[in-house]
Design a protein that fits this description.
By secondary structure, the protein is of the alpha/beta class. The strands form two sheets. It has an eight-stranded mixed sheet with strand order 3-4-6-5-7-8-9-10, with helices on both faces. Strands 1-2 form a two-stranded antiparallel ribbon. A hairpin with a 5-residue loop joins strand 1 and strand 2. It is elongated and about 90 Å long. The two termini are about 50 Å apart.
């Protein structure tokens, strides 16, 4: 503390840090904050560096750094002899960052499970859907809101997975959601055609025809974005604007190893869906949040899936996912369509974002960042909806 530095008492230090004076005294008593100097009357005297240190202490405490490590970081541990304090702080922060990242990955996985269960309970609690008869099956769909016609398209995501996003958009759009064949209330039937992008696109075209023959608005996520690529090719007159979020097109990545790993996961799905899910999660990286300077971990052991989840993945990974990820888009035809390609802002170095980047380049379009990762539409519906509106209605305020 130099004579030129501004000094202030505990009340102002508390105000600058957003803490109570009693909390600052508590940190001192716990031995995790060095006691500040005092004036001749015994009152605590703080400077700007003390405030910065207190703010950092709060971040470390809130993110779970052990108290002993915090004491070393702040220099409150009087018993520790430190030759290089800066080096020690660097090592403490690096170790803590690894702990925080591990906790974040665990929370992300828990959030994905919670999101799926919300979708399941939404399916059970929602009003009875309407049904569209197809030659070989029946498609369940739901409608809500008022405004321009907007279809939310997923594969395997159906009505339940889009429920929160649909609620966010219903104030500005007439939102139509549906369960793709074999998903949710659109249950598999004997003799039903396989859920390829071509077949799913015809189901969607038939659904659109029940509402309008004019161009509509579409948002497709994951496999649903692949469905929209085929719809735009087969029925360009139906597509006004289509936002494609992370179509997981391994076919565009020129990565034989990745393609072989995906094919292996799909091949075992019917007999061992737990293994198939594990392999697909590892190769896609989609369970994680990764920024430009981060890569998803190569492997994170998944918990045992419940029977209902295993059955879903027998169908999704065993029958639906393969035709979608190996789908080859008709680039020339699609360049004439009103397509916007997006990817999660926390999906960097993941399979689907890489594919979205490759698709945007082929279509000569920019790649637009969206909130969240691969499941941002369901995990962060409010933020995702706010980002969607100007893409769907460019003149909207």
């Amino acid at each position: 503390m130099s004579d030129e530095e501004e000094r202030f008492g505990i009340g102002e230090a508390a105000a600058r840090t957003g803490l109570d004076p009693d909390t600052l005294r508590y940190f001192e008593r716990q031995g995790i904050l060095p006691a500040p100097r005092r004036d001749t009357a015994g009152r605590r005297q703080y400077v700007a560096a003390d405030v910065d240190l207190i703010r950092m202490l709060v971040h470390l405490r809130e993110t779970g750094m052990p108290l002993a490590d915090i004491a070393q970081f702040t220099g409150a541990d009087a018993d520790a002899e430190v030759a290089d304090p800066s080096r020690l702080r660097l090592e403490l922060l690096a170790a803590h960052r690894r702990r925080v990242e591990d906790r974040r990955d665990a929370l992300d996985r828990a959030l994905d499970v919670i999101t799926r269960k919300i979708a399941d309970y939404t399916d059970q609690a929602a009003d009875s859907p309407q049904f569209l008869k197809r030659p070989d099956t029946t498609i369940a769909y739901a409608v809500q809101g008022d405004g321009p016609l907007l279809f939310l398209v997923g594969a395997p995501v159906g009505r339940g997975g889009f429920a929160a996003l649909a609620d966010e958009l219903a104030g500005q759009f007439t939102v139509v959601t549906h369960d793709p064949r074999g998903i949710g209330a659109s249950r598999p039937t004997h003799g039903m055609a396989e859920p390829t992008p071509e077949v799913l696109a015809e189901d969607l075209a038939a659904l659109v025809d029940t509402f309008t023959g004019a161009p509509a608005l579409f948002v497709g996520t994951s496999g649903g974005a692949v469905t929209l690529l085929e719809l735009a090719k087969r029925h360009p007159g139906l597509v006004g604007t289509a936002v494609l979020h992370e179509p997981p097109l391994i076919s565009l990545l020129d990565d034989d190893t990745l393609a072989e790993r995906a094919a292996s996961a799909f091949a075992v799905a019917a007999a061992d869906p737990q293994r198939a899910v594990q392999e697909f999660v590892d190769l896609s990286g989609a369970a994680h949040h990764t920024r430009p300077d981060q890569v998803p971990p190569a492997h994170v052991e998944l918990p045992e899936l419940p029977p209902a989840e295993l059955d879903k993945n027998r169908y999704f990974l065993g029958r639906m996912a393969g035709p979608s990820v190996f789908y080859e888009p008709d680039t020339e035809a699609l360049r004439r369509a009103g397509l916007t390609v997006c990817a999660g802002s926390t999906s960097h170095h993941q399979m689907a974002r890489r594919a979205a980047h490759a698709l945007a380049a082929l279509l000569r379009r920019p790649l637009i960042d969206m909130p969240g990762n691969h499941v941002g539409a369901s995990a962060e519906p409010a933020e995702f909806a706010r980002a969607l509106v100007p893409l769907l209605l460019p003149t909207a305020p």
